[in-house]
Sequence to fold (169 residues):
Amino acid sequence: KMSNGGFNPAINVQLAVDTQSRAIVGVEVTNAGSDKGLSEPMRKQVEERCGQKVQEHLMDGGYLVMDEIDNAAKDGVTLFVPPTKPRDPKKLDQRYVPKPTDSEAQARWREMMGSQQAQTIYKERASTIETANADLKTHRGLEQFRVRGLSKVRSVAIWCALAFNLLHF
Fold:
């Protein structure tokens, strides 16, 4: 299902980018219409590929699933993801105040995301993953796939990421 309410064939490409080196370190594709629930599998893929434990995970708000905050906390991972914006603009600052239904990890996460330090870290998304996405779409042909099937699309996405990394370094 698309954001306009209609249904179209589509592929959702997920990338993980290291904020220091700006290397693409994870690639996955899915036909799911949402990013929800996809952060933990990507983290596991990055750990397997890099041979190191992910300690901090900076991700788009579309990935936010409250249970994943608890799972990440159990694994010792700090998530930098903004809380969902409330519908009422007057309550915008309240999204950082723990809710009675929040677990202990969720309450800590809300308070942390309200801090200036966490918001500064979150702004790194624009210079890392967003620039990698733009490069892949503009210069590497990762926009409209000319192959069918998730395994073939995954191969194309990995080749595009490899080209990005080779040219970047």
Q: What stands out?
A: The chain has a mean pLDDT of 89. DSSP finds seven helices and four strands in the chain. Strands lie at 12-17, 24-30, 56-58, 78-80. The first strand starts at residue 12 and ends at 17.
